[in-house]
Amino acid sequence: MLGGSQHRSVPCEVYVEKKTLDSTPILGNEVDGGCSSSSCACRAAGVPRRQFIQMLGGIAAATLLSQQQAMAGPFEASDFANLIPPDKKLSPDWVRSLSRRGAPTVYRGKDLETIGMPIGGICAGLLYLGGDGKLWLWAVMNQEYEGILANGSDGMLYAHPLQPVSPVKQGFSLQIRTRGGDKIRHLDHSGWKDIAFQGEYPLGMISYSDPDAPVSVRLQAYSPFIPLNTDDSSLPATVMTFTLTNNSEVPVAATLAGWMENAVALNTQYKVPVVRWNRIRQGPSLTFLECGMDTADPAAIPQHDDGSMGIGIFANQEEVSVFLAKVPDPNADSIFAGNTGPAEATETAGRSADRLIGALKYPIRLAPGGTHTVSFVITWHFKHLKLSGIEGAETGRHYATRFADAYAVAQYVGQHFHRLQADTLLWHDTWYNGTLPHWFLDRSLANVSILATTTCYRFGTNRFYGWEGVGCCPGTCTHVWSYAQAAARLFPELERTTREMVDYGIGFDTKTGRIDYRGEAERGEAIDGQAGTILRTLREHQMCADNRFLERVWPRTRQALEFLIRKDANQDGIIQGAQHNTMDADWYGEIAWISSLYVAALLAGEQLAIEMNDSAFAARCHQLADRGNQSISERLFNGEYFVQKPDPDKPDVIGSYGTCAIDQVLGQGWAWQVGLGRVLDRKKTLSALASLWRYNFTPDVRAFRKAFPSGRWYALPGEAGLIMATNPYDIPNPFHADWHWSVGHFNECMTGFEHQVASHMIAEGMVEQGLAVTRAVHDRYHASRRNPWNEIECGDHYARAMASYGTFVSMCGFEYHGPKQHIGFAPRMDESNFSAAFVAAEGWGTFSQQITPSTLDASLEVKWGRVRLRTIALRLPEGRTSIGVSAAWNNNSIPTQAYAAGQRVTIALESPVELESGDVLKITVA
To answer: Which of 549, 435, 569, 463 lies closest to 846, judged by CA?
Structure first.
């Protein structure tokens, strides 16, 4: 029985919210890629928790939710006899929807309540854009919590999604003048009958309409987000662009106002007396309400929430009027009744308990059918961090090295507004205008937003620092961050500096080559993290334009790999001894997934050594990798999947042993991300992935979690997911340590691991299964249930979830090596008509290909920066061979040579080309 005798512990309750049990389905509700469901079948209306758990216990088809029938089914009770049905009974319509282009997802109604899209710059704090356009949370003032608002690291917000809360009074309102009088409509859920939210990170797009209003409004919110431009993507700023449309047959006069409370010193105002002040500052086409403070004691130690914030409008200064006041309860209505004189420098001062409010008001006249667009910017500047014991944190936030205050940030955004906006929109369009399904593009990129949360920091020293999740588990932990693929592909500077400053810097033991897996926060090795860091070093090198990074880190990279080689006591390619890993324990024995990472690291070391002309070390790595492949395949494969062989001297130590564990072929999955080829036997790898699909993927976790309730609930009854480890052979005491505190992890669904498996499945050609696993995660994070932009593990906005970008890499069959000026593509979906974004070391753009009976026509169009190329690899359709290749750069023919190996053809340009923005390289393979 799957999971039979897995382990027993005190059950934990399933926490649910009050909603109807028999409402819209949970999974599979986006048959065409667009979904606006407003209800959740895993929430019960007024039912006591324990009674609800009992209600969920039945597995017969009659008790299965309608949503599950949309994804899979119908099921009989016998299908769940082994807790996870071997036959997933996926609906053919649902399967077709996985690869269909579909439509963008639009949320309405109750779904808007859970939405919190990070909308600030990366490493600049956490500001949420709500589903109704309201900004909330405002975690930009360095108040450190474990979890959002101190909700801890146990995933509480998964079952109890956070509702919008805001410690800062701020908003936008529209005053419409009509013959019947003035009408004030707040740009949030209270002001409009129909609000629709479309989130395509980094853009949040919201429309407001009401049959009783002559005007409709569309909001486009974002913080500048430009891959490869880390600085301009790290601004403590949010742009709010409003477009008003007059839908009536008569002219309309209106006033759009943005207002804000002065909330500096929000958390420490009673600890250190301050005087807050608001004043108006102006620059070219910018009027800015600056909210600042002065301390009563000039000798006082700066507090973490000392700083400034403000709101600005990019408009003709003569047209902007201002409102400044001290009021007991700031609200939007009062601003239209206040002073409306010209915008001039004004100051209103008060003690900390006072509430200062200011507003910027802009008049708009609209002819029938007319439109008008105006942009506001919200900025903040809170330099001082509360991170103790972390090297570099004392220098504060990196943005403070560029800007003196919030006004300086607004000035920069204003001076570069058109470029920042154009580049951000260009990236959005480049990402979304391809042929891949909308839902897939959403989920692949959504977790990049983790960089724009309080999971991530960038210090004044330029050091990048990350928790595992918000405020949880310090040190940019190697065994968690080794799963993340997004930052390295979009902002490679962040990962490179982490390798140099931390892994091979303050966290490196120069005597042994050990990489401290939490930097200075916790000394000691994690074997999976050590191997993962070597693999990441190869990835970071590949995302460079030249060899300088590798030349700097190679000596310590080699030493770090030698540290692992010494752990391979028998020199057979399998690690021995204590193996601390991401399951938060020391495991022992011969562990397939850890040793597969070691073998992949050896192959990475071989490649790096070759490039550094260290042929002897390259040969040694190659030899050990070959032995490891053979040893793992011969000794750790049970006929279906890869396992862990126990250490006879440590029989009672926790491990995955004979279970079907989620990471069993992780090394091979990592190898596909960096073009290393085969780490493990192909047939056995495919068998292992098929076993994960058969034994670990379930369209409904309820049966499994009813039998094994210990662990955290990151998938609730009625939701699909890939279980961390199952026990297909009903092995007694399968983990050897029922007592261990971490044993419940094996029962969970954790998205970072699921994304890793999905990307590997896609790379191996198991596209349908990989898409299904990814879609299960995507649907669990539909706004009808919880925040789509907060994948939770041990903490909110969990870093491992950035493995989702790896599914995109695999789907494109993307390979890249900047120093070698090489790029390649082997699309896994719709290869006959494929188009998708790509990011290289110095530029990004669009790759597309079309396949006809006689040719493969491919093109690379650079949209931003530059891309230098010498070779391009493509994959021919099965059964086809190349008989000729031609290439053209901006329609000018260039000489080439082609080399074929199976389905792969590599086109070598006679002379390297440097493609700049707007350039197109076309290749035709006959």
So the answer is: 435
Question: What's the alpha-carbon Rg for the chain, to the nearest Å?
Answer: 28
Output the six-digit token pair for 200.
Answer: 């395509």
Residue with tokens 């588990």: 473
Cβ atoms of 618 and 609 closer than 8 Å: yes
**Pairing relationship of beta strands 116-118 and 126-130 according to DSSP bridges:** antiparallel
Sign of CA pseudo-dihedral 288, 291, 296, 297: negative
Give 308's strand partners. Answer: 381
Do 14 and 49 form a contact (C-beta atoms < 8 A)? yes
**What is the C-alpha separation between 145 and 273, in angstroms, rounded?**
23
C-alpha angle 494-805-139 in degrees, rounded to nearest 5:
60
Contact 779, 719 (CB under 8 A): yes
Place of tokens 């126990």: 646
Q: How many CA atoms lie within 13 A of 721 on its CB side?
A: 28
Quickly state the pLDDT bin for 492 (edges 50, 70, 90): very high
What number of H helices and E strands is found in the chain?
A: 21, 37
**How large is the greatest C-alpha to C-alpha distance in the chain, in angstroms?**
89
**Structure token digits, residue 241:** 């662009």
Cα–Cα distance between 159 and 294 in angstroms, integer?
42
Do 560 and 515 form a contact (C-beta atoms < 8 A)?
Answer: yes
**CA distances, 289 to each of 230, 286, 314, 381, 669 (Å):** 27, 10, 12, 14, 51
What is the average pLDDT across 114-136?
98
Distance between CA atoms of residues 239 and 313, nearest Å: 10
SS3 456: strand
**Phi, psi (5° rounding) for residue 856?**
-115, 115
Distance of CA 398 to the CA centre of its chain: 21
DSSP 614-627: -HHHHHHHHHHHHH
Residue 332: what pLDDT? 67
Asked if residues 916 and 866 have their Cβ atoms less than 8 Å apart, the reply is yes
Amino acid at 243: T
- pLDDT tens digits for 198-230? 999 999 999 999 999 999 999 999 999 999 999
State which amino acid sits at residue 32. Answer: D
Contact 843, 867 (CB under 8 A): yes
Q: Tokens in use for 753? A: 């691991």
Q: Judge contact between 469 and 484, C-beta under 8 A.
A: no
Supply the pLDDT for residue 582: 97
For 745, the 3-state DSSP assignment is helix
Separation CA 707–CA 84 (nearest Å): 11
Tokens of 718: 């009625």
Q: Is the pLDDT of residue 11 over 70?
A: no
Give, rounded to a whole angstrom, the gap between the first and last alpha carbons of the chain. 53
Number of neighbours of residue 883 by Cβ within 10 angstroms: 10
Both tokens of 286, joined, read 């910018």
CA distance 917 to 423: 12
> In Å, what is the CA distance from 22 to each residue of 40, 45, 501, 799?
9, 10, 53, 34
What average pLDDT does this structure show over 775-796?
A: 96
Amino acid residing at 322: V
- Local confidence band at 175 (pLDDT 50, 70, 90 cut-offs): very high
Q: What confidence category does residue 44 fall into, taking pLDDT thresholds of 50, 70 and 90?
A: very low
Nearest Cα to 267, choosing from 121, 134, 135, 144? 144
**How far, in Å, CA of 862 to CA of 917, rounded?**
5
Nearest to 100 by CA among 807, 775, 810: 775
> What number of other Cβ atoms are within 10 A of residue 209's Cβ?
16
Q: Hey, how many other C-beta atoms are within 10 angstroms of the C-beta on 820?
A: 13
**Alpha-carbon gap, residue 597 to 412, rounded angstroms:** 45
Burial class (CB in 10 A: 0-12, 13-18, 19+), 431: buried
Q: Are strands 822-825 and 856-875 parallel, antiparallel or unpaired?
A: parallel
Cα separation, 679 vs 573, whole angstroms:
11
User: What six digits make up the tokens of 20?
Assistant: 């109807």
**Tokens 């706004």 belong to residue:** 783
